[in-house]
């Protein structure tokens, strides 16, 4: 034990003096003496602490060979009550230096070869803890799930099965309930226990990762950022683990070209059958489709938003939202085709149609901020020409909620100068709810464009009673600090208003 302390001190002195330290040689020596079979747990603990230190020291060349040499020994000790902590810490340090994917890859053979039920149970618990602490970013989950199924779920030991079921519950939290399809060949009793665990965790979100992985440093820790263009998705991470479990399919190939003609058929039953065909195609691929959705499909669905059969309108709206959710994208060019008609459905007398329209709008916003900025917001002025209180209040509430959440999260807003004139009309609406929601959007507009820009537009565009009504509302935001300058856009708008 004293020799291990001296070794650690010597290695630290070597590093401090600039002398070379070769982690792989150190680990090879540790494997020989004291050896991984050392009976004194304190000696082993110090050996593992040296590994942890070397892996965490960025200036040392702790290569993948060094990691592979010590991984089996570290896995063996995950079942030792006195050594599981140091062994786990060393593996975590290696995962932080490289990736969790790399570490699980090198420990998988050792976990599969374990004979002790206790060690298997502790390995399952360790895997579960790492998924919670690192997240699933960058992982290839299919082989991990297969290992857990083979080693843990089908173990004869109850504790090992329990820990494996808990692990599956964590994976369900990370990637959703579809993961059950990868283990549906388990015996019914065991499958029932897994399903019960899925119900228990429900839709609990995964915690934020507490460990960084240097091997993933090229992408953001959160993975969700605005792409600032027509890339179609807020997620530019590219590390969706579901892509490995259930690869995305080409919807265009699944539905074929004949569906467009059927969507325009004079017989409502044929139109319904075409909508059902699209829904069935999405379900057949577990709602995992590629973002290359044909504009022709959006054009065809756009026609159904004016269908005399309101039930079909609601179904079409649902599909417009589902396409974005299932592809995790909302291409601006596609959304532009249907944005205005979708918003206009908010004036419908049927609650189910209005609800479906809001769901579609929210799906686009969740998939791609840019679709909101470049496709939905430009359609808002034309939509607000409609005096329908249902449309105005619902649309303004949605804008306030979506952009308010974005402002809270990032402190940024898009250029809202195109909303200034329509807001002046809504602020004079007879419906109190419309005026209330218009005031919420007005605060965001002032934050986006600046108080002076909105104030000047009010004075230039309104006269008499209208000016007396709206100007005091604008004055309430005099001390609001604008975060985006939109003077040029406003100047163009006011010039057109004068003309």
Account of the protein in words:
- The chain is mainly α.
- Helix content is 67%, strand content 0%.
- The chain contains 26 helices and no strands.
- It has helices at 2-17, 23-35, 41-56, 64-76, 84-97, 100-112, 117-134, 141-153, 158-175, 188-201, 242-245, 251-255, 258-263, 268-284, 295-304, 310-327, 332-344, 351-367, 369-376, 380-383, 389-410, 420-426, 432-449, 451-461, 464-475, 487-498.
- Helix 6 (100-112) runs parallel beside helix 8 (141-153).
- The longest helix has 22 residues, at 389-410.
- The termini are far apart.
- Mean pLDDT is 89; it is low at 218-229 and 482-499.
Write the layout of secondary structure elements.
Layout: H1 2-17, H2 23-35, H3 41-56, H4 64-76, H5 84-97, H6 100-112, H7 117-134, H8 141-153, H9 158-175, H10 188-201, H11 242-245, H12 251-255, H13 258-263, H14 268-284, H15 295-304, H16 310-327, H17 332-344, H18 351-367, H19 369-376, H20 380-383, H21 389-410, H22 420-426, H23 432-449, H24 451-461, H25 464-475, H26 487-498
Helix pairs in contact: 2-3, 2-4, 3-5, 4-5, 4-6, 5-6, 6-7, 6-8, 7-9, 8-9, 9-10, 14-16, 15-16, 15-17, 16-18, 17-18, 17-19, 18-19, 18-21, 21-23, 22-23, 23-24, 24-25, 24-26
